[in-house]
Protein: Alpha/beta hydrolase
Amino acid sequence: MQPRSAHCIANGIRLHYLDFSTGLRGAPIVLLPGITSPAATWAFVAERLAQTHRVVVPDIRGRGLSENRPGLGYGLNDYARDIHGLINALPIEHPIVIGHSMGARIAARLAATQPGLASKLVLVDPPLSGPGRAPYPTPLQSYLTAIEAASRGASVEAFRAFTPTWTDEQIALRLEWLPTCTVEAVTESHRSFHTEDIFPDFPRLECPTLLVHAAKAKVVPAEEAAEIAALLPHGKAIPVEAGHMIPWDNLEDFLAVMQPFLLSS
Structure:
């Protein structure tokens, strides 16, 4: 499936997005990637979801083909306002918002500050490492090292040991797009994982919310998943047997967990 590639002005900046629009049965989906995942790297997930939904995947600011000038600002509120602007610019009516990792934090902040905007939320393994909580398990340097290696032309074989469940095509795509993730954006975003608290957002999520957490990762431990589920007014938590990059590890179970929720009335 060949998505439409386009740009819009949202929150005063230029955002690039991919639009997968063959599926028309379900509500539209806005899919928000993580800290070093431009939109193109999520195409294999969007294509599956687009069998039943229109799916829009943006390049988060500072990544991919979206605006990335120095000093742009990479706080959680910046990101949430961008996505609010994108939804209004296209426009998309009451989308389901799915966010992975950093994208899940953005989705939660968006829905907490814009009640009624999203019809449903899916929060996929959001970093929980705010003030007073355990640090995010992946250090900043691992992201910067990967970006540098990809920028120098690292091979698929060089990354194979770190991503054993990924296909060669998925690794190659990641290597192609990693250099578009600016050091400033990644550094500031990783810092915000530790300085910005998203737990106050959870009780403010008025729409039905599904927390999907990786059973084989340390980002959302089972006890914190239960804590979040108890805070959600209309939500639940479901684990998937996978590492943090859940769809790359176990796409079928990831979709199987989400699809009943996405299609429910």
